[in-house]
Specification:
By secondary structure, the chain is an alpha/beta fold. The chain has 2 domains: 1-42; 49-311, Ribonuclease Z/Hydroxyacylglutathione hydrolase-like (Metallo-beta-lactamase, Chain A). It is 31% helix and 24% strand. It contains 11 helices and 18 strands. The strands form 3 sheets. It has a 9-stranded mixed β-sheet with strand order 1-18-17-2-3-4-6-8-9, with no helix packed on it. A 7-stranded mixed β-sheet has the order 10-11-12-13-14-15-16. The chain is globular, with a radius of gyration of 21 Å. The protein starts with a helix and ends with a strand.
Length: 313
């Protein structure tokens, strides 16, 4: 057989092999990795800027930080002198989180929002309270007796020792932060069997920019939020539940209408987050999909109209 023909056959075999791996639903990690590799090739420099703190490029009216804390969640909003921290990740990331906050001169947290009582969202609480002054902790108003959340936070000595103000919130509560505000979308006054659906879900709005922070909400809560006729249209979505198959229904995505998606997820995590079907669904709305496992810390700076995206990888 002619050498040229042999080469063609070998190339075809390789392409078939790669395709099998890529489309296999039983090998999410490999397909996700290939997805990201291909997508990274198409990133435009105008929206994918490296940064070195403090940020010297882009806009600085408001800075949205999506912090790499493995397969957990932690976000920071900085605007007009206010610092809002949403969740902490596991306690093993506490040192990294404190170092990050120090880089951005966070010596006071005005609102410390803990979305729901799971370790990958709240277990860094002690270290934050022991090292940074916190004005107010915000917790979900879960059921009338608040038993679920109270039993969880009672294990934290730092809350008692620091005598920090605690505020329980529910749907339609608001926090005004200068010219911006936070609106609480959930918890709804409804009992769910799954604690993820009792999470604090919120939007942050400043001028023309709105960010939807979804915590770990799942399909049932997503449907109830849409059916409540709340305006949840947002430019940026922190993807629910680390990109799990449990969440990010077409119904909720159609109503949020985001053009930038952020997934907080750990490298080679045992849950195979993010799910490949969810990635495909999100990419049908926008190619601007960022992940902490590949992109590291993700920072979006904005003047309330335009926005610039920075990453650490």
């Amino acid at each position: 057989m002619h050498i040229k023909n042999i080469k063609v056959i070998v190339i075809l075999i390789l392409l078939i092999f790669i395709s099998i791996i890529y489309f296999s639903k039983e090998n999410n990690f490999i397909s996700n990795t290939l997805d990201s590799a291909f997508e990274n090739l198409s990133f435009k420099k105008s929206i994918y800027e490296k940064y070195s703190p403090p940020i010297s490029e882009g806009y600085s009216d408001v800075i949205f930080h999506f912090i790499d804390v493995g397969n957990g969640d932690s976000s920071l909003i900085q605007s007009e002198g206010y610092n809002v921290l949403i969740d902490t990740g596991e306690d093993i990331y506490s040192g990294k989180l404190l170092e990050y906050l120090s880089e951005f001169n966070v010596d006071k947290i005005d609102l410390f929002i803990l979305t729901h009582p799971h370790s990958d969202h709240m277990d860094g609480l002690d270290e934050i309270l022991n090292n940074i002054y916190v004005e107010k902790i915000v917790l979900p108003d879960i059921e009338t007796d608040r038993t679920i959340i109270k039993d969880y936070i009672d294990s934290y000595n730092s809350i008692r020792d620091n005598k920090v103000i605690i505020e329980y919130v529910k749907k339609d509560d608001r926090f005004i932060l200068g010219n911006s505000y936070i609106k609480i979308i959930s918890p709804l006054q409804k009992k769910y069997s799954n604690v993820n659906n009792m999470s604090i879900v919120l939007t942050y709005a400043y001028k023309d920019i709105s960010v939807f922070y979804s915590s770990d909400m799942e399909k049932e809560l997503e449907m109830d939020i849409v059916n409540s006729n709340i305006n949840i249209k947002s430019n940026i979505l922190k993807v629910p539940h680390h990109g799990s198959i449990t969440s990010s229904t077409k119904l909720i995505l159609d109503n949020i209408m985001a053009d930038i998606f952020i997934i907080s997820v750990g490298k080679r995590n045992k849950y195979n987050h993010p799910n490949i079907d969810i990635l495909d669904r999100i990419r049908s709305y926008s190619k601007q999909v960022y992940r902490t496992d590949f992109n590291g810390n993700i920072i979006i700076t904005s003047d309330g109209i335009k926005k610039v995206i920075h990453t650490t990888r």
